[in-house]
Design brief:
By secondary structure, this protein is of the alpha/beta class. The protein has a single domain (3-296), classed as Vaccinia Virus protein VP39 (Rossmann fold). Helices cover 32% and strands 22% of the residues. The chain contains 11 helices and 11 strands. The protein has a 7-stranded mixed β-sheet, with helices on both faces. Helix 5 links the parallel strand 4 and strand 5 (139-144). The longest helix is centred in the middle third of the chain and has 14 residues, at 119-132. The protein is globular, with a radius of gyration of 19 Å.
């Protein structure tokens, strides 16, 4: 029996409080720098606070996209009117991706499992569910924990999704997480990891990494490693993807960058405009792409 198998618990061992499942070691988890950082970020993250600040008559009550816009990328390829029994979302945040899939793609499910390390984001997820009722009628299981060990049974999930998350997870933990996700995914199930990996050849990341390397005041604990497409494929294959999804795609994003748009939180003049103007030839697209997505084929 591996260490992961010894450590794995079921959701019945978690404590349910205010609609959120917390692990028994939550006090220990709360003391980690990684969680403290994300709890702080979660208070203002990417439009998530808007739901708590607007009046009842605000347009945001009628148009959910005013929270943080519609996520694009692989989600544009996701089929309409799909129905599954169970969905697992890693790094769910305040629910931006499932809100879009439910409202715009009419994705339906019976059970939705959402896991995130940030309690503040999960509390906003509950508010967003109350306001917009995405996945209507589904059983919601909201879990506040590190996702390295999933409290779910083997072959129990039809669809695993994640949006812009894996670049924030250290390499060793990410490899464990990928193995866990493919453990719980049903054979022939579907996965979508949209814009989930940063691209190690992207000039913007290379510049950012250099600046980080000369920072004498410490490193940001949530800004982590980038990967090449070959390295992503190696990680997915090692994690056992072929046992569940024989066919899959690793795809460069269509967002390109040669300059960091911020340095230590300070906007770099003209960087955003320069990056948005990039229209690389095919030979340069993978080099200049900001990141990669991965998804099973076919998505239908």
């Amino acid at each position: 029996m591996t260490q992961l198998e010894k450590s794995r618990s079921s959701l019945s061992e978690f404590q349910l409080q205010d609609g959120i499942y917390f692990p028994k070691n939550y006090e220990q988890l709360n003391s980690t720098e990684h969680k403290q950082k994300w709890d702080e970020i979660g208070k203002t993250y990417y439009g998530s606070q808007k739901i708590e600040q607007v009046a009842e008559t605000s347009p945001i009550k009628q148009d959910y996209t005013l929270l943080g816009g519609k996520p694009g990328g692989t989600w544009n390829k996701f089929p309409m009117n799909k129905s599954v029994d169970s969905i697992l979302e890693i790094g769910c945040g305040y629910g931006r991706a499932p809100l879009h899939l439910s409202k715009d793609k009419n994705l339906q499910c019976q059970k939705y499992f959402a896991i995130d390390i940030s309690e503040s984001l999960l509390r906003r997820l509950i508010r967003v569910k109350q306001e917009y009722d995405f996945f209507p009628g589904a059983q919601f299981n909201i879990i506040c924990n590190s996702a390295e060990i999933l409290p779910l049974e083997d072959n129990s999930i039809d669809l695993v999704i994640s949006n812009c998350v894996f670049m924030h997870i250290p390499d060793a933990q990410l490899r464990n997480l990928l193995s866990e996700m493919f453990r719980v995914l049903k054979p022939g199930g579907i996965f979508v990891f949209n814009h989930s990996f940063h691209n190690k050849s992207c000039p913007s990341h290379i510049i950012h990494n250099f600046i980080r390397s000369i920072n004498i005041f410490g490193k940001n604990p949530i800004y982590l490693k980038q990967y090449s497409a070959v390295e992503i494929q190696e990680m997915l294959n090692t994690a056992g993807i072929k046992n569940k999804c024989p066919q899959y795609t690793v795809e460069a994003t269509t967002e390109y960058a040669i300059l960091p748009e911020t340095i230590k939180g300070i906007p770099l003049p003209f960087a955003k405009a320069i990056n948005r103007s990039l229209k690389p030839a095919n030979a340069w697209k993978e080099t200049l792409a900001y990141g990669f997505s991965a998804y099973s084929n076919p998505l239908e």
